[in-house]
Design a protein that fits this description.
Blueprint lengths: L7 E11 L5 E11 L3 E6 L5 H5 L10 E6 L2 E2 L5 H7 E4 L12 H11 L4 H14 L15 H15 L3 E5 L7 H16 L3 E5 L3 H7 L2 E6 L2 E6 L1 H4 L3 H6 L6 H10 L11 H9 L10
Parallel strand pairs: 3-8, 3-9, 6-7, 7-8
Antiparallel strand pairs: 1-2, 1-4, 4-5, 9-10
The protein binds adenosine-5'-triphosphate (ATP).
Pfam families: ABC_tran (PF00005)
Family: Belongs to the ABC transporter superfamily.
InterPro entries: AAA+_ATPase, ABC_transporter-like_ATP-bd, ABC_transporter-like_CS, ABC_transpr_CbiO/EcfA_su, ECF_ABC_transporter_ATP-bd, P-loop_NTPase
C-alpha cells in the first residue's frame, strides 16, 4: 500500500458533472489515489462510477470542481496527452476497437505515441501473449468473443505502459481461468509499481487485489476504506446495493454476535474459524 505523504497521482476536487440532457451524474466528488495504490470504485448501477473514471483521462471535463492527474488540470490538457499517463479500459470493449487486426489494435496507441518499430513489435507480442491472444493476431477484433475483446482492450493499454491503469469491470464476462489471468496481470502491475483503479461489482476480486475502496451512491462518495473494514459494514453496503462476501455472511449466521471476535473476511478466514487451521485451504475446495 502506498504510504502517507506519497504523491497523489489522481486528485479529484469537489467535482460535479452534468450530462447535456441534465442528468447530474457526479455531485461533489472528492477523492485521491496515491502513486502505486490499487483502488476500487464500487456502487450501485448508475452511481456515477464510469462517469468519474472518464474524468481521469479528460474524456469528460468537470462541470464544476477540478481533476488533477499528476498535478495536471484535465481541463488544460488534451485527451491524447493524458492518455499517455492514464490508460483507460472501458466497460464495453467495442467502444475502443479501431484496428483491422488484433495485432493492429494493440499497435495502434504505440504507433500514435511514436514508439520505434522494434519496440512496437516487442510490446505487441508481449501484451498479446500475456492476454493469451497471440494466436489470434491476424484476425479481426470483431471475430473475437466478448471476453476475448475485453482482454484485447486490456492488452492494448498494457502494451503502451501507462503509469496509471483504469479498468472498468475487468472481470465481467470472463470465465474462472481468464479471471485468474487478469489477477496475475494485476499482481504483475503491482510489482511494476503501477497505480490501478478498478470499477467493479466483484467483491471477491476486490478483497484479493485492492488497498482501498471508494464506495459511491447517487453521484457521491459515501465511504473510503480498506475492503476488510468496508465489507463488514452492512448498512453502507446496502446503500450501494452490495452484499458482503459470502463467507462474511455465513459467518454472521454461524457465529451471531460473536462474529466480530473472528478474523473472517474470506473463505480461508471462515475455514480457520471453523477448523482452527486444520484444513487444506480454499485450493482444496
Ligand atoms: N451519455 C449519457 N447521457 C446522459 N446520462 C448519462 C450518460 N451516461 C451516463 N448517464 C447517467 O449518469 C448516471 C451515472 O452513470 P454511470 O454510467 O456513470 O454509472 P455507473 O455507476 O458506472 O453504473 P453501472 O454500474 O451501471 O455501469 C446514470 O444516471 C446514467 O443514466
Amino acid at each position: 500500500m502506498a504510504g502517507e505523504g506519497t504523491e497523489h497521482v489522481i486528485r479529484v476536487e469537489d467535482v460535479y458533472y452534468e450530462y447535456p440532457d441534465g442528468v447530474e451524474a457526479l455531485r461533489g466528488v472528492s477523492m485521491t489515489v496515491s502513486s502505486g495504490e490499487f483502488v476500487a470504485i464500487m456502487g450501485e448501477n448508475g452511481a456515477g462510477k464510469t462517469t468519474l473514471i472518464k474524468h481521469f483521462n479528460g474524456v469528460l471535463k468537470p462541470t464544476r470542481g477540478r481533476v488533477l492527474i499528476k498535478g495536471r488540470d484535465t481541463r488544460e490538457h488534451s485527451v491524447a496527452g493524458l492518455s499517455r499517463i492514464v490508460g483507460l479500459v472501458f466497460q464495453n470493449p467495442d467502444h475502443q476497437l479501431f484496428g483491422e487486426t488484433v495485432y493492429d489494435e494493440v499497435a495502434f496507441a504505440l504507433r500514435n505515441f511514436n514508439f520505434p518499430m522494434e519496440v512496437i513489435e516487442r510490446r505487441v507480442e508481449w501484451a498479446l501473449k500475456m492476454m493469451e491472444l497471440y494466436r489470434y493476431k491476424d484476425r479481426s477484433p470483431y471475430s473475437l468473443s466478448v471476453g476475448e475483446r475485453k482482454r484485447l482492450a486490456i492488452a492494448a493499454v498494457l502494451a503502451y505502459d501507462p503509469e496509471i491503469i483504469v479498468l472498468d469491470e475487468p472481470t465481467a464476462g470472463q470465465d474462472y481461468v481468464q479471471k485468474e489471468k487478469i489477477s496475475e496481470i494485476l499482481n504483475l502491475l503491482r510489482t511494476m509499481g503501477k497505480t490501478v483503479v478498478i470499477v467493479t461489482h466483484d467483491i471477491e476480486f476486490v478483497m484479493e487485489h485492492v488497498d482501498r475502496v471508494y464506495l459511491m451512491s447517487e453521484g457521491r462518495i459515501i465511504a473510503s476504506a480498506p475492503p476488510r473494514e468496508l465489507f463488514t459494514q452492512q448498512a453502507l453496503l446496502r446503500r450501494a446495493h452490495l452484499l458482503p462476501p459470502q463467507p462474511v455472511r455465513l459467518a454472521r449466521v454461524l457465529f451471531g454476535e460473536r462474529f466480530a471476535e473472528y478474523d473472517i473476511y474470506d473463505l480461508d478466514g471462515l475455514l480457520d474459524a471453523l477448523f482452527g487451521g486444520r484444513h487444506g485451504g480454499i485450493e482444496g475446495i
